Design the sequence.
C-alpha cells in the first residue's frame, strides 16, 4: 500500500469512528445523523438558480433579494433560516466574482457543498490578483467596459451572484430560465447558458 | 527578511499558483457523511464553533495543509475540536479508527451542554465607528492565532461599502470563548491596483473584504 492510499483510508476510518463514538455518547442518534446527511446533501446550486430565475421575471422579488438574500430564499420555501446572504448583481458595468481566500466560505445552507474548483488553493490564491486570467480558464471573457468586483468572503456574510439574464431568453418560463443558470455562474466565474445552447 | 514565514498556511490570497483544477467529481460517500456529521457537531450544544473548526484546519501546518484534500482537512478539524472539548479522547478515537472499540470508555455519560451566557451577563455590542463611504486603513499588524483579516489587505486603504451588523469575535470563538461583546463588521472596498503593485487588469477593478472594526483605523 502506498502512503497516499494510507492517508485516504485513514480519514475514511476517522469519519466512521467519530460517527460511532458520538452516537454511543448520545450526541445524536443514528436516525438523526442519517436525516441530516440526506437533507444536507440534497441541497444544490439548483436552489440558487430558482431564486435567479424568479428575480429575472419579478423586479419586486429582485429588489427584496438584493436587500435580504436569506429572506428571499425563505420566501420561496428554500428554508435557509437566518442566512446572512448578500446577493450581488451583475450589470452592464460591473461583474461580480465570489471567493473565500482564507478557507472556503460558501452559502452551504442554500447551495449545498461548493464545487471542487472553488475550494482549490489555486482559485483562492489567484482570483483576487488576476481575476480575468482565472475567468479565462473557465472560458469567460468580459466586454471592455466591465469592471470586476471580487468579493472575499472572510467573515459572517455569504455571497451569491445574480447573473445577467441571457439575451434571447424572452418568453421563457421560470423553470426554463432556471435551467440556464449554472453553479459556476452563481459564483461569477462564468455566465448562464444561452437558451438552447452551450454556456456562452 | 523572512517575510514568507509570517504568512499563515491558509492565508493564500495573492500567492502565485497554477491553473484552477476543473475536474468536477461527485463527492465520495464518506465525505457526504462527514458533511452531515459536521453540521450536527456544530449544533450539538457542546460549544464547538465554525471558527474553532477553521482554526484546527489552519493549525495543520505547511505540508499537511497542502497535501490533504478539502474534506480530509474538514474531518481532521471535527475530530480535533471534539478532542479539545473533551467529547472524545485521543485514545477512544485511536481505538475506533483501528476498529477495536472500547465500549466501556466510549459509553461514558454524555456531558451536559455548555450553558449559554445568561441575558444579564451579555455585554452590549461594541459601538460601530464607521459608515458607508468612510475611508479606512487596515491595521498592519502580524498576530498569531485565528484571524479573519487576510494578509494581502493589511496596511491598505479602502472605503467602507456597508456596515454588516455586529458579530461574536471569531478570534475568541476559535478558542472556545464566547467572543463577546459582539464587534462591528464591515465590507471594505479596495482598488485592486492598490492591493497589488503589479496589478495588470483594469484600473477600476475592486476587491471587497469583510473586516472587523478592531482591524480598522480612520484614514483621512
Sequence:
Amino acid at each position: 500500500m502506498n502512503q497516499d492510499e494510507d492517508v485516504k483510508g485513514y480519514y475514511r476510518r476517522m469519519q466512521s469512528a467519530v460517527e460511532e463514538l458520538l452516537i454511543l455518547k448520545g450526541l445524536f442518534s443514528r436516525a438523526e445523523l442519517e436525516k441530516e446527511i440526506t437533507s444536507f446533501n440534497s441541497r444544490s446550486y439548483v436552489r440558487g438558480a430558482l431564486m435567479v430565475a424568479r428575480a429575472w421575471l419579478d423586479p419586486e422579488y429582485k429588489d427584496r433579494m438584493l436587500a435580504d438574500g436569506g429572506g428571499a430564499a425563505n420566501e420561496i420555501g428554500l428554508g435557509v433560516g437566518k442566512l446572512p446572504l448578500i446577493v450581488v448583481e451583475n450589470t452592464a458595468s460591473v461583474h461580480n466574482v465570489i471567493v473565500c481566500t482564507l478557507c472556503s466560505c460558501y452559502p452551504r445552507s442554500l447551495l449545498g457543498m461548493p464545487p471542487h474548483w472553488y475550494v482549490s488553493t489555486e482559485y483562492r490564491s489567484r482570483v483576487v490578483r488576476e481575476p480575468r486570467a482565472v475567468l479565462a480558464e473557465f472560458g469567460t471573457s468580459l466586454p471592455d467596459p466591465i469592471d470586476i468586483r471580487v468579493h472575499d468572503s472572510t467573515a459572517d456574510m455569504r455571497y451569491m451572484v445574480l447573473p445577467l439574464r441571457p439575451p434571447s431568453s424572452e418568453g421563457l418560463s421560470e423553470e426554463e430560465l432556471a435551467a440556464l443558470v449554472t453553479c459556476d455562474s452563481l459564483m461569477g466565474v462564468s455566465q448562464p447558458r444561452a437558451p438552447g445552447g452551450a454556456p456562452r | 527578511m523572512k517575510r514568507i514565514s509570517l504568512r499563515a498556511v491558509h492565508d493564500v490570497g495573492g500567492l502565485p499558483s497554477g491553473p484552477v483544477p476543473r475536474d468536477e467529481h461527485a463527492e465520495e460517500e464518506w465525505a457526504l457523511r462527514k458533511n452531515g456529521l459536521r453540521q450536527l457537531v456544530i449544533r450539538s450544544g457542546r460549544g464547538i464553533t465554525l471558527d474553532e473548526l477553521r482554526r484546527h484546519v489552519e493549525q495543520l501546518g505547511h505540508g499537511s495543509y497542502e497535501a490533504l484534500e478539502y474534506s480530509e482537512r474538514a474531518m481532521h478539524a471535527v475530530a480535533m475540536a471534539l478532542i479539545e472539548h473533551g467529547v472524545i479522547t485521543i485514545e477512544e478515537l485511536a481505538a475506533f479508527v483501528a476498529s477495536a472499540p472500547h465500549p466501556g470508555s466510549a459509553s461514558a455519560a454524555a456531558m451536559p451542554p455548555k450553558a449559554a451566557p445568561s441575558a444579564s451577563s451579555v455585554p452590549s455590542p461594541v459601538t460601530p465607528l464607521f459608515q458607508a463611504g468612510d475611508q479606512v486603513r487596515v491595521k498592519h499588524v502580524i498576530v498569531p492565532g485565528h484571524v479573519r483579516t487576510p494578509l494581502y489587505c493589511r496596511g491598505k486603504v479602502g472605503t467602507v461599502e456597508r456596515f454588516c451588523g455586529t458579530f461574536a469575535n471569531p478570534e475568541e470563538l476559535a478558542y472556545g470563548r464566547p467572543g463577546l461583546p459582539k464587534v462591528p463588521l464591515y465590507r471594505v472596498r479596495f482598488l485592486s491596483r492598490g492591493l497589488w503593485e503589479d496589478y495588470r487588469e483594469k484600473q477600476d477593478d475592486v476587491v471587497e473584504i469583510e473586516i472587523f472594526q478592531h482591524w480598522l483605523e480612520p484614514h483621512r
